[in-house]
Amino acid sequence: xxxxxxxxxxxxxxxxxxxxxxxxxxxxxxxxxxxxxxxxxxxxxxxxxxxxxxxxxxxxxxxxxxxxxxxxxxxxxxxxxxxxxxxxxxxxxxxxxxxxxxxxxxxxxxxxxxxxxxxxxxxxxxxxxxxxxxxxxxxxxxxxxxxxxxxxxxxxxxxxxxxxxxxxxxxxxxxxxxxxxxxxxxxxxxxxxxxxxxxxxxxxxxxxxxxxxxxxxxxxxxxxxxxxxxxxxxxxxxxxxxxxxxxxxxxxxxxxxxxxxxxxxxxxxxxxxxxxxxxxxxxxxxxxxxxxxxxxxxxxxxxxxxxxxxxxxxxxxxxxxxxxxxxxxxxxxxxxxxxxxxxxxxxxxxxxxxxxxxxxxxxxxxxxxxxxxxxxxxxxxxxxxxxxxxxxxxxxxxxxxxxxxxxxxxxxxxxxxxxxxxxxxxxxxxxxxxxxxxxxxxxxxxxxxxxxxxxxxxxxxxxxxxxxxxxxxxxxxx
Length: 478
Prior knowledge:
The protein is α/β, with parallel strands linked by helices. About 30% of the residues lie in helices and about 20% in strands. It has 14 helices and 20 strands. The radius of gyration is 23 Å and the shape is elongated.
């Protein structure tokens, strides 16, 4: 991987007067906390609008959880969709987000997302972000709208453009400690620490928290989602909830904490591949340790994660046959079945009975489960769990009948916490009374209220870019 853009502390952008040494304080128009997609979207937008920005990143490199993600962004009405003859709109995107979130979302935030999503797509392209063709299969969408990128390259692209403006100062290895308020209660900066020195980074127009969630903080995860205590956690090492705790300390409110969810399809023992495999979205069924189905496999992979984690040992199997294996998409990480087979992670057998023996589930039960499911496919109705499509509203169900047969061990992995601070549509952070905390803004995974009870593919990176830009414009009064 190439080195991150302007990642070294001795970068020329940080001259002697700007580098915090011997407790020297620094000042800009806006202070941004966090160097992932949300942070750099905010910093670049603010700089393009004429503001000077200080961006604090806790780790020694940029990217955070954004760079580790699957690189999916949900946009509607784009040129790539039109090239693929996909008809989409902001209103359809809005309806899908509300439906997937089970109406637990904040409608104002969903509206902010859809109203600014297309311009943000164009803005990202202008910043040098390269998009692949629209992914055909995705969770929670009426039509295909997942636009894929290399996530690390995307953050680097925005970071490079931010550097080129000459208005963004990046401080790596710098931890934000506390929010600072003036006598009127307005947030005017943060206290921070770098190389053993504590200093103040002041923002004339306030502070934007874009420091991610807390999937790397077991104590906070247990507080809000104890059912995931034993789940696999994957995310940026800095995602321990620093921004959340700083905001809560001054009275900020939070929401959707009960909707922390794991993503289904992570191999329980594979430590080299952080991505899930969703063969269920190509026609596989999910069975538990007893060899029985337990869920409608077409639902959001976050809801699949919830269902999986309650099964014995918190691990299940995706069962499929050779045609389903061959239908995978090697251009999409979560659908690249053949790659997992080549890596030795997929269990293979000539018959369902032999497969059951290998994964140590009752053979007669698994055989009956597959036969019963095939009957439902033929009948066009699944009375047990109501599955009607491969994923969401897409794809006709297929029989599992042609050997060899395969099993992919799967558990739920928490890639992000998808909950956070209460904000209004302008990304002002709200206190427990619903009032704006002046001078404080949030973006990206820090924000609660967009996803609601579940998650649409691409909406996490989408809200990082979209809400980062909105926060910048609100902070700079533009």
